[in-house]
Amino acid sequence: MIRVLIVDDEAPIREWVEYCILREKERFSVVGLASSGEEALKLIKKEMPEVVVADISMPGMDGLELMKRAKEIAPFTAFIVMTNYAEFSYAKQAITYGAKEYLLKSEMCAGDLIGALDKINENKEKIVKHKVRELLPSGFIDLFGLYQCQTPEAMNEFLDTIGVEAGKGGQVLCIRRGKGEIEADQLIELVEKENLAKLFLASRQEYDFIIAQDNRKQKLEEAMGKIGRGIGEKYEKAVGISAFFSDRTALIHALRQAVEAENHLFFHEGERVLIYCEKTGPSGLSREAVRAAYQQILWNLAHKQYEETLSQMRQWFETIEKVGLPDSQWAIERCQRMVIAVEEQYYHLDPLGEDQAKGGQHLLTMGACRRRCEELIQKLYDKKNGPYSESVDRALAYIHENYNRDISLVDVASHIYRSPEYFSRLFKDEVGENFSVYLMMCRLNHGRDLLIHTDRKIADIATAVGYSTQSYFSRLYKKYMGKTPDEERNQAKQ
């Protein structure tokens, strides 16, 4: 829907234009009426309309001056100008300032106005893309030079060179490079619908940045949040966004904030966008205490104290989670090192394990690190207490109690508090059969007992052991037991 602002010093004209637009309310909406250029400029800053329908000839700030001023704060807003004068000079000036349509009041009708709006609507995306690409270079500016500036003068010179304007606030969005790297054109596509005053792409070490400048703080924060969510959803990337900075001299600080926010998403599983906020670590928590607990966990693990290891490891992750933003990178590295340490111990004790050690760096959240550690420690615990682990013993008991019901691998895994993937592998390793095959043979063996020791109908027996039809039961029985149910029963009677 196109949002329209109407500007004219004559109330009847404003009301007539509003009436015409509201007749097409499914496609257009009116965000405000202004009687002067000054009033219109305030509404443009507040509402950011896609289109302004404005009179050229107004007392005070006329339509041409309004267009000139509006271009500075809303470069993507289109103008339709109206005038009582048919002189070409007015049309020429209006076009110079970016007018998309030019209407004569004495001749225009509702169809002309709506036609002009339709034309702008059709070309909206093309116009926006063109303007964004003027603002946003198709490539990444290397910020290395910014960190080499030793004086305020040198910094200002560098910022002038790359196009960061003085006296204009801004915000920084951070994306970590790696698998599924995003190209410049892909980022441009995501920002081209946002009506921001200044944009450019930059890079530093393993990070890419979108740096935006706009003194409309609320508008900028909303736009950057929207861009971040778009990147997170479309490219499955973690995105950190800095707080708003009011002056370009704070750009380095904002870059650090954006990186910190991106790092801290490690502790926020399920989220892809985080805006930086000041946070301090908890009182009494130190790196030394975390390291000491880490060493104790590894000692217990090496001495096969798996229950103690699991309990301490869970508590350790909960403690790590409390580390604030200033220590986020250290906390991330420590969590990933824990995974590596547990994997090394697991494969040392069980070199033929079905999983291959991947290292902790591939795990992008603390929750994933914790689950990986729990999985491997639980496997070690289960192997220690054979022939069947406690988990498989409980699963077998559940199967034999519920074989006649419509149970699935997911049901059994949930019953023993394991993931379906882990339970499936564990069951096959210890029992030697897939879960589905074991369940089927369990049902068929119970069916055999009923065939031999009761006179129940075969259809009833099929239902009693968990099959909905006699034909399916009979087909499976023949295939896996080597005879039909009737043959089984007849042989037992002989």
Describe this structure in words.
The chain has four domains: about 1-130, Rossmann fold; about 140-275, Reverse transcriptase/Diguanylate cyclase domain (Alpha-Beta Plaits, 2-Layer Sandwich), CATH 3.30.70.270; about 285-385, no CATH class; about 390-494, Arc Repressor Mutant, subunit A (Orthogonal Bundle), CATH 1.10.10. Helix 11 runs antiparallel to helix 13 (about 365-385) and helix 12 (about 330-350) packs parallel to helix 13. The termini are far apart. The strands form two sheets. The chain has a six-stranded mixed β-sheet with strand order 6-8-9-7-10-11. Mean pLDDT is about 85; it is low at about 350-355. By secondary structure, it is of the alpha/beta class. The protein contains 20 helices and eleven strands. The radius of gyration is 35 Å and the shape is elongated. Helix 9 (about 250-265) links the parallel strand 10 and strand 11 (about 275). It has helices spanning about 10-20, 35-45, 65-75, 90-95, 110-135, 150-160, 185-190, 215-235, 250-265, 285-300, 305-320, 330-350, 365-385, 390-400, 410-415, 420-430, 435-455, 460-465, 470-480, 485-494, and strands at about 1-5, 30-35, 50-55, 80-85, 100-105, 140, 170-175, 200-205, 205-215, 240, 275.
